[in-house]
Amino acid sequence: MAIILDKETGKIIGRYGLLPWTIEGQQEVEVAKPLAQDGFEKLNNPRLICMIDPENIASQKVAEKFGMTLERKVDGYSRP
Q1: Using one digit for the tens of pLDDT, what is the confidence trace for 29-73?
Q2: Where do the structural domains in the chain lie, given as residue ranges?
Q3: CA 57 – CA 65 distance, rounded (Å)
């Protein structure tokens, strides 16, 4: 996993990589587009997700551009 920093403030504004999550009791793997092919082909993940803050419209648009769709909104999630 790597983090994304705001160039002006140095504040963490995001992260990318193949990130494991447990959402509503189900194991999921979050992905950024450049890693999707590796996630499916090399690591044999059958499913990949994007976790996006509801207020982050730019990230929502990026996810939509590479074929992601809103499945549901969740409150209860944790990192394994």
Answers
A1: 877 766 777 788 888 888 888 888 888 888 888 888 878 899 988
A2: 2-78
A3: 12
